[in-house]
Amino acid sequence: MNRVEKQQAIDAIAETLSSANVFYLADASQLDASNTSNLRGLCFNKNIQMTVVKNKLLQKAMEKIEGRDYSEMYSVLAGPTAIMISEVGNAPAKLIKDFRKKNNRPILKAAYIEESIYVGDDQLDALCDIKSKEELLGEVIGLLQSPAKNVISALKSSGGTIAGLVKTLSEREN
User: Fold this and answer.
1) How many other β-carbons are positioned within 10 Å of the β-carbon of residue 105?
2) What is the pTM of this model?
3) For the stretch 77-94, what's the b/e string if a residue is b when 16 or more beta carbons lie within 10 angstroms of its beta carbon?
4) Do 125 and 135 belong together in one domain?
5) pLDDT tens digits for 92-121?
6) How many domains are contained in the chain?
7) Is 152 exposed, middle or buried (0-12, 13-18, 19+ CB in 10 A)?
């Protein structure tokens, strides 16, 4: 790879990372061809873009991006590195955790989620527990609807009780 090609690769990586709010760095080495293919297929199905990159190029791309500080991640840039880019914060973590039920890889090196950096494979469970934007919106809507549903059901039930009492009393008079 000559200098021009390297600079083009750095620019492409920097552009990809600057537009991504969520990306994970993982070590998927030591997987055989079929498991690697399975992992890539799972990533495709979950809308996760997975790319293997050279660490030096990745670090230079990270340094090039203005307004973001990736310096905490530089220490994990050793050995094979795959970037997993997603729009959902916990999707790559869940995919890695599920995939590791049958394999010992990929190993999480680091993750960048909405300006927060997580370093180390021990962060995988915490990353799985992060709620996606859709999950949070669903919970908020559920919480907002709950009191209204309680009031409506209380009105309906007490209204039915009152109507039943009135009907019973009117039938007794006859």
Assistant:
1) 18
2) 0.73
3) beebbbbbbbebbbbbbb
4) no
5) 999 999 988 888 888 899 999 888 889 988
6) 2
7) exposed
